[in-house]
Amino acid sequence: MMKFIKNVKMLNEQSELIETTVTIVDGRIEALGAKQPDAAEIIDGKGHLLSPGFVDLHVHLREPGFEHKETIETGTASAAKGGFTTICAMPNTKPVPDSIVNLKYINSLIEKSAKVRVLPYGSLTVAQSGDERTNLAALKEHGAVAFSDDGVGIQLASTMYEQMQDAAKLDMVVVAHCEDNSLIYNGVMHEGKRNKELGLPGIPSICESVQIARDVLLAESAGARYHVCHVSSKESVRAVRDAKAAGIRVTAEVCPHHLLLEEMDIPSDDANWKMNPPLRAADDKDSLHAALLDGTIDCIATDHAPHTEEEKCCGMVGAPFGIVGFETAFPLLYTHFVETGKWTLKQLIDWMAIKPAQIFNLPYGKIEVGAAADLVLIDLSKEQTVNPESFESKGRNTPFTGWKAKGWPVLTMVEGRIVYEEAK
Ligand SMILES: NC(=O)N[C@@H](CC(=O)O)C(=O)O
Ligand SMILES: [Zn+2]
Ligand SMILES: [Zn+2]
């Protein structure tokens, strides 16, 4: 099957937008900038931006076990609508991918209903209990993309250390949700100014940063590749920056909401503003921006975390942590940071496609001859208001309702197959 995309603009090596065409044969990019072949299905790109499909190292699809929040089908439809073509699914499902049997089961569900490429994590401990270590070699052999216990921090240093040693032997990345349980203090938002105004218990920044500081030293000793999830605080940024300077093999991600929002933006005791780690102070947000720009933070990940309206209805204290992210990530970041001149379009695409793929050594996230035709067409001038009712995700839990943004994906393709197309 041959497909031909005409009339699109793509960034070249010099970061200029140039007009091009794409010829796709058997799901791969056969040629860029070639003339229209005769025997092809033609897609008119209407002058839109052609970007590599985004790669998200941190997502929650909820299936198996929590299908009332999301399924692989709805989660990947949401990803496709957001322009994501490869997503890495965190292991806090039921069952947890902690054994060959469970990972095979999850892979069979992915095979049945995923609209985009889903690469599952294997867990670091059995049932994510933090206790018994999983067999990383077996999980790798059955397709685990990396290892994580996201959702909870690994409390015991020895557990983390021993899994890092095993992962290092396999040349696999250990991906950490850093949270010291003894420092949560039943908090539901950042321990700062706004939580006191709202009378809500706070989570101090050290809850995250002390575990990152511990882990980078463990990674150094184990010789492991170590990736930090959802960095939120300036102390965490410093720990990662110092570790990189010391030559430790650490990478880090930041979520759109931590770049766009801060604690003082939280309007009320509304659980659509509750996520882990929480929105922190203005200077924390500033440090995350500086860290992206200086390379301390390597990429952007959504941490798409759908929950039901019932779970999120009634204030922060009883609600689960997490917000959805796929369908708003690119437009919000493009509008707030590229259109305003803070970032270049190239930087944003690097952080959402190229860098995340590199961290896991994935052959995706780039547009070149021979690569999989994982592509997204984006209408940079289309302006639209964020409306959760229109989400493909089952989750409506976003703090961005009503935000205006430009830069909406209009067509997403995985290996040359159209997996999302804007309604005409
Ligand atoms: N980020 C969140 O607030 N929640 C995530 C878990 C996690 O990423 O730690 C979830 O699974 O709901
Ligand atoms: Zn997490
Ligand atoms: Zn997560």
In short:
One of its GO terms (molecular function) is dihydroorotase activity. This protein has helices at about 70-80, 100-115, 135-140, 155-170, 195-200, 205-220, 235-245, 255-260, 280-295, 310, 330-340, 345-360; strands at about 1-10, 15-25, 30, 40-45, 50, 55-60, 85-90, 115-120, 145-150, 175, 190, 200-205, 225-230, 250-255, 300, 375-385, 405-415, 415-420.
Characterization of the model:
The chain has 424 residues and is α/β, with parallel strands linked by helices. It has 2 domains: 2-49 and 372-421, Roll (Urease, subunit C, domain 1), CATH 2.30.40.10; 53-359, TIM Barrel (Alpha-Beta Barrel). The protein contains 12 helices and 18 strands. It has a 5-stranded parallel beta sheet. Strands 3-2-1-4 form a 4-stranded mixed beta sheet, with no helix packed on it. The chain has a 4-stranded antiparallel beta sheet with strand order 5-16-17-18. Helix 4 packs across helix 6, helix 6 packs parallel to helix 7 and helix 7 packs parallel to helix 9. The longest helix is centred in the middle third of the chain and has 17 residues, at 206-222. The protein is globular. The model has no long low-confidence stretch (mean pLDDT 98). The structure holds N-carbamoyl-L-aspartate and zinc ion (2 copies). N-carbamoyl-L-aspartate is lined by residues 60, 92, 150-151, 177, 275-276, 303, 305, 320-322. Pathway: Pyrimidine metabolism; UMP biosynthesis via de novo pathway; (S)-dihydroorotate from bicarbonate: step 3/3.
